Structure to design on (96 residues):
């Protein structure tokens, strides 16, 4: 049965937009409305970050942060290859 839900998401940064995409793909029929206070998407952190996919090296092995970084890194690589989004592998310049 198709859903009749209508879900509102506040904020059109990467988190809000990724969530909207996920719901749209996985809950057919659900209406999703993203509410954004600026006049464009990615106006804040999402549009001003360093573009680095963190490998999780700086976090305690086995911690949630380390686990999610690793998973995110693998997923990002898969998505980049599928969409031909340009990526570049390089050594980290961070001193942390
Ligand atoms: C300088 C910098 C460098 C970074 N570098 C990296 C990096 O290299 N790699 C990495 O993985 N991460 C990096 N990050 C972190 C990453 O950018 C953020 O974790 C991520 O963009 C957060 O996304 P978000 O959707 O939660 O927030 P945001 O992108 O800030 O989106 C939130 C949105 O909500 C909207 N909003 C807020 N309140 C309301 C309201 N009441 N009504 C309607 N809309 C509202 C805002 O206008 C905004 O568009 C960096 C962050 C910074 C600041």
């Amino acid at each position: 049965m198709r859903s009749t839900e209508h879900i509102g998401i506040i904020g059109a940064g990467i988190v809000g937009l990724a969530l909207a995409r996920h719901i749209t793909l996985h809950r057919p029929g659900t209406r999703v409305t993203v509410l954004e206070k600026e006049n464009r998407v990615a106006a804040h952190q999402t549009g001003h970050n360093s573009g680095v996919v963190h490998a999780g090296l700086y976090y305690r092995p086995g911690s949630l942060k380390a686990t999610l970084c690793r998973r995110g890194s693998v997923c990002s690589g898969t998505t980049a290859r599928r969409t031909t989004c340009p990526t570049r592998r390089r050594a980290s310049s961070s001193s942390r």
